[in-house]
């Protein structure tokens, strides 16, 4: 499996973030945000393709991937929105193009609507944006995180593996599934997995949901038609709320569109971003 290095570091309000910049050094800046319980690794193929034309920034949110994971860490949507705003300032990006998946969609939306982050354009891929959200399993773990933290290592591994593999679509390659599960294992990873679920609160999207009708940046909404976590109907609903947004359903893809249909997603993103003035 190819490496996915994040050699750079930035310390913000929720700990140290690992990040990288790839692609065309003089290209228009484009930032990618991952979702939960994933990391920037899910963007690897799309990022490298987008890098032919863009300067692409990738990062693991605090509490995720190879970024800092620590007891008592604030990894909520509120914290991530602030960290992303800090990171854009650190990078010196005033109006980058932004593509955000799942939980990262809510992070990008909060940074824009609450913290004044400005984007040249925004692409949302199966985002967590509209109530209600959270599967029955997700809510069970959130309400009893302290119990799940005590699971034996083998049971915890099996639980995370089953959960990550339940996104719908054609299914993940076993090596990719291993890579996505690995950050959540061990003395640091296991409590971090339950920490991020325990802090997932719908009120953080409730706070901004009524502002979607005021979004005035070019917006693309992509959705895997076979998403088993967030129904495609939520995507159509969101597209109806964001003025002038472009709706792009992607066939034969589940929630992890980057893994299920990377070529189709890359084509949709390139076509959209190339039209932005």
Automatic annotation (TrEMBL):
One of its GO terms (molecular function) is hydrolase activity. It holds the Pfam family Abhydrolase_1. SUPFAM superfamilies: alpha/beta-Hydrolases. InterPro entries: AB_hydrolase_1, AB_hydrolase_fold, Carboxylesterase_BioH, Epox_hydrolase-like. The keyword Hydrolase applies. Gene3D superfamilies: alpha/beta hydrolase. Transmembrane segments: none annotated. Residues 29-262 form the AB hydrolase-1 domain. Keywords: Hydrolase. It comes from the Bacteria. This is Alpha/beta hydrolase. It comes from Streptomyces violaceolatus.
């Amino acid at each position: 499996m190819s490496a996915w290095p994040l050699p750079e570091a930035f310390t913000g309000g929720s700990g140290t973030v690992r990040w990288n910049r790839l692609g065309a050094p003089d290209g228009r800046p484009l930032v990618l945000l991952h979702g939960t319980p994933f990391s920037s690794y899910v963007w690897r193929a799309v990022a490298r393709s987008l890098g032919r034309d863009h300067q692409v920034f990738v990062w693991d949110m605090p509490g995720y991937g190879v970024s800092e994971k620590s007891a008592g860490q604030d990894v909520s949507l509120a914290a991530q929105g602030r960290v992303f705003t800090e990171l854009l300032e650190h990078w010196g990006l005033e109006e980058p193009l932004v593509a955000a998946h799942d939980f990262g969609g809510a992070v990008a939306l909060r940074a824009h609507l609450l913290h004044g982050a400005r984007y040249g354009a925004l692409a949302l891929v199966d985002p967590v944006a509209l109530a209600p959200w959270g599967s029955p399993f997700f809510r069970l773990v959130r309400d009893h995180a302290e119990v799940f933290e005590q699971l034996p290592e083998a049971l915890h591994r099996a639980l995370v593996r089953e959960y990550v593999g339940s996104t719908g679509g054609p299914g993940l390659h076993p090596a990719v599934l291993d890579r996505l599960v690995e950050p959540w294992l061990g003395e640091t990873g296991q409590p971090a997995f339950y920490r991020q679920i325990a802090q997932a609160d719908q009120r953080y999207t409730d706070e901004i949901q009524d502002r979607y009708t005021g979004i005035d940046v070019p917006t693309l909404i992509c959705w895997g038609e076979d998403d088993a976590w967030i129904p495609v109907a939520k995507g159509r609903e969101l597209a109806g709320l964001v003025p002038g947004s472009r709706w792009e359903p992607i066939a034969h893809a589940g929630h992890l569109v980057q893994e299920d249909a990377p070529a189709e997603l890359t084509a949709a993103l390139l076509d959209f971003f190339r039209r932005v003035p």
